[in-house]
Amino acid sequence: MALDFAAGCIGGAAGVLVGHPFDTVKVRLQVQNVDRPLYRGTYHCFQSIIRQESMLGLYKGIGSPMMGLTFINAIVFGVQGNAMRKLGRDTPLNQFLAGASAGTIQCVICCPMELAKTRMQLQGTGEKKSTRKLYKNSLDCLVRIYNKEGIRGINRGMVTTLIREMPGFGVYFLAYDSWTRYLGCEPEDPYMILKLLFAGGMSGIASWISTYPVDVIKSRLQADGVGGVNQYSGIMDCVRQSLKKEGWRVFTRGLTSTLLRAFPVNATTFATVTLFLMYMREGEECSIQDSEHQPVPLQPQTQPTSL
């Protein structure tokens, strides 16, 4: 189980570095005012942020996911691996259930982390050097929200996060398992790494498509109150107002940048996790084989389990 946690941690860090600029664009597009839009689309948003705020503008708020997502991925892959061992049989249903359980547990960290990330990403919109910084960093952001709104404040959007993460992670692991089986990702395959990257990228896309409308509502609820005025009284009120003003297309706002981000991030994350586990478990197997030639083993070893 410790290997699952370590692999998830390393894979999470790699994924954040690759995907954070796309996430910044996604959040900006999701929460911009429809009456006075700053951005015409994904490419224009990228272009505007770089021109007005420099390349660093795309990495605003990275502290929160870099700290949080590495730990979250450690939890996700650790819980999923342990759940699969408890469930026993490697079936599509069990893959979904193990993924859903992992998604549920990590919400405790994911929700506050995404709240801080969203607030930081919206801070100083359109400014190269923000003159009025409300938050110094992600931790300061959470502390200020807690001091003002308490526990409920830092858990804003928790229900929508749960609604997104439970089925989202179920689809995530089910899709990855299905793609790796279909592609035949065997250790001796010379194209194994490419196949792992493709399977990981496609599983990320499948997961996001299955839950994206919920993510739009979550982002709007977490961004609500930034200017000092709360626009929505709850989830259903946010859904009603968004539909009334912008129509059904509101639930696809920012989807392009999300899918552009989903493929490289999840390709990197899953390939890193799988290769790390394969390498470490090969090492364990070698250690076990070597110990068999020793007259007195120091301690009993257990056979490693597969991902």
TrEMBL record:
Subcellular location: Mitochondrion inner membrane
Molecular function (Gene Ontology), one example: high-affinity L-arginine transmembrane transporter activity
A GO CC annotation given for this chain: mitochondrial inner membrane
Domain of life: Eukaryota
Reaction(s) catalysed by this chain's protein: L-lysine(in) = L-lysine(out); L-histidine(out) + L-arginine(in) = L-histidine(in) + L-arginine(out); L-lysine(out) + L-arginine(in) = L-lysine(in) + L-arginine(out); N(omega)-methyl-L-arginine(in) + L-arginine(out) = N(omega)-methyl-L-arginine(out) + L-arginine(in)
Membrane topology: Multi-pass membrane protein
Chain intervals for the UniProt region annotation (Disordered): 288-307
Predominant location category: mitochondrion
Record GO biological process: mitochondrial L-ornithine transmembrane transport
Statement: the UniProt record of this protein carries the keyword DNA repair: no
Record Pfam families: Mito_carr
InterPro entries listed in its UniProt record: MCP (IPR002067), MCP_dom_sf (IPR023395), MCP_transmembrane (IPR018108), Mitochondrial_Carrier (IPR050567)
Keyword match Membrane: yes
Low complexity bias (residue ranges): 294-307
Solcar repeat ranges, renumbered to this chain: 1-86, 90-182, 191-279
Keywords of the record: Amino-acid transport, Membrane, Mitochondrion, Mitochondrion inner membrane, Repeat, Transmembrane, Transmembrane helix, Transport
Family from the record: Belongs to the mitochondrial carrier (TC 2.A.29) family.
PANTHER family referenced in this protein's UniProt entry, alphabetically: MITOCHONDRIAL BASIC AMINO ACIDS TRANSPORTER (PTHR45624:SF61), MITOCHONDRIAL BASIC AMINO ACIDS TRANSPORTER-RELATED (PTHR45624)
Protein name (record): Mitochondrial basic amino acids transporter
Gene source species: Eleginops maclovinus
